[in-house]
Amino acid sequence: MHNKKLRRAGVESKICEILKHHHIETCEDLLSLTPLEVMRLAGQSYYQSLQLLKSVSQACAPKIITAQQLWSQRRDLCFSTSLTELDRLLQGGLPRGTITEVTGPSGCGKSQMCMMLSVLATLPCSMGGLDSGVIYIDTESAFSAERLLEMAQSRFPDYFSVPERLLETAGRVHLFKELTCQEVLTRLERLEEDIISCGAGLVILDSVASVVRKEFDTSLSGNLTQRSNLLGRQAATLKYLAQEFRMPVVVTNQITTHLSERAASSSLSRRWNATEVPGGEAEGDSGYVTAALGNTWSHNVNTRLIVQYLDAQLRQVSHGAVAQPLLNQLEY
What we know:
Rossmann fold, DNA damage, DNA recombination, DNA binding, ATP binding, 15 helices
């Protein structure tokens, strides 16, 4: 991955320090140089410069894995959501090494689900957790430490009856508030070292759509292309982190409404409720709701979960482009 730090690519510390003085810290920075430039900046011979560029290039290349190795790792490929029916449908839980998207209407509980997953990740492996830290990137100021601890105590009262365990869980969830597209991208590109230092086993981006939809008016010329390029860079970085550390990455998304041609031509408008149109066609074929950010983003997502209202207290979680009920209720 081009954003990998040179230290992580196996470059000697001494050379890393020399290059850092020239603002060369990532594989991309180094590989953008010619062998002659590397010679001058790193104080290396021509042969050493070639070898350095070759080794860094190899470190960035995707690692090869055989089907046999993948099969042998199958038991460690999922992170349990603790929801039996959802885990069953996902064949074990949230897949590691991939991006899982949680989408749904505002206020339906996407952030609550992310906080619950954060609690689960900090639990011991014997309880189905990851015994790890969590990187939580909040773009909507929706994260609540009080709610996180309430959920932990409510869901696992026996385990968290010891106050020290509650404090330990709170200390393992590392929150970053990023409120612009550039801040989010910069954070993601620097996240590799944070994951290592925090001992993180789960990365959450809540939400991917919030800042993008505020900053890019796609009705203006060129904005759609710029937005697609930004989302592509974010997705590439998240996929690299997921694969490099074999961890689940969870992002939340919003929904958008599309009118059918018949509805649009007759200038009909209607405010859809996610319960009425849970990701699929509505009665009369007037329109449908779907995850925001378009097809370009949807192709970057490996697993899509749809959270929707069942009633005022209960929620449903569905899997796939068209919502089908999987759970009678989702308790947070």
